[in-house]
Amino acid sequence: MKRVCVVCEGQTEETFVRDVLAPAFIGLSVHLSPETIETSPGHKGGALRYDRVKRHLRNTLRQRNAPTVTTLFDLYRLDQGFPGHANSKAQTDLGMRLDVLRAALHADIVAEAGCRPERFIPHIQPYEFEALLFSDVQTLSQVEAGWQSALAELSAVRAAAHSPEYINDRPETKPAAHLERALKNPSYHKRRHGPIAAMKIGLSKIESECVFFSGWLMKLRALSTQPL
Question: Fewer CB atoms near the end CB (10 Å): N or C, the chain?
């Protein structure tokens, strides 16, 4: 069984990996193990300063059992201390921006940890986890009975973007902001509703709509063919 440590942005992503991604990889003999980074004493996830990220990734990659390490971080409000951040902002194409960030992060962490390059697979999700839920707004609107009235509004948001991953990163128009405005009775709660909605939508549908997310999973699936 290939062990892969998935270092997550926060507890929502941690639950998503545990409940949605990990079961889908067991048949490939790839064990996805999510974890979050301590951001203050007794608290984990969110507000990921790069110095903390770098230390955590380095220590994980130096473990004796030598797991492969990957990340699930949001592009939205990514700490400016991340390597390549300034250069990435100069890119007008989202794919190129992500390429710059991933390459710089990979180089910095591999050099810091002194590990084989293939053991670290950086992923930065545009623009945040909630973008994945726009892969199927019909299913999303059925998660709670009181949400069905939001279908038209959510459909308009999705239709206005090239794909769910292009729903942008301004505070008032980021994916989570749309959900928080539209979904009431009960109100959208990221940690409770996010992973449940993703499970109902399903990985196949999410991957068909979200190419950057799908590309990440392809890299993780490829680990099943590598020697232990």
Answer: C
Residue with tokens 């973007």: 161
Mean pLDDT by 10 residues, the chain (228 residues): 96 97 97 90 75 96 91 96 96 97 98 97 97 98 98 97 94 96 96 97 98 98 88
| 2-126+207-225 placed in CATH 3.30.70 | no
- Between strands 43-44 and 38-40, the pairing is antiparallel
Which tokens is 171 given? 């505070």
Hey, what are 155's tokens?
Answer: 């459909």
pLDDT given at position 70:
98
Q: Residue 89 has what pLDDT?
A: 93
User: Taking the CB of residue 69, how many other CB atoms lie within 10 A of it?
Assistant: 24
- How far is it, in rounded angstroms, from Cα 182 to Cα 184? 6
pTM summary value = 0.95
DSSP characters for 51-80?
A: HHHHHHHHHHHTSTT--EEEEEEESTT--T
Task: Provide the terminal-to-terminal Cα distance of the chain, rounded to the nearest Å.
Answer: 7
pLDDT at 2: 94
Q: Quote the CA–CA distance of 163 and 155 in Å, as a whole number.
A: 12
* CA angle, 106 then 108 then 111, to 5°: 100
48 Cβ contact partners less than 8 Å away, ≥ 6 residues apart: 9, 37, 39, 73, 79
Residue with tokens 């959208």, as numbered in its chain? 188
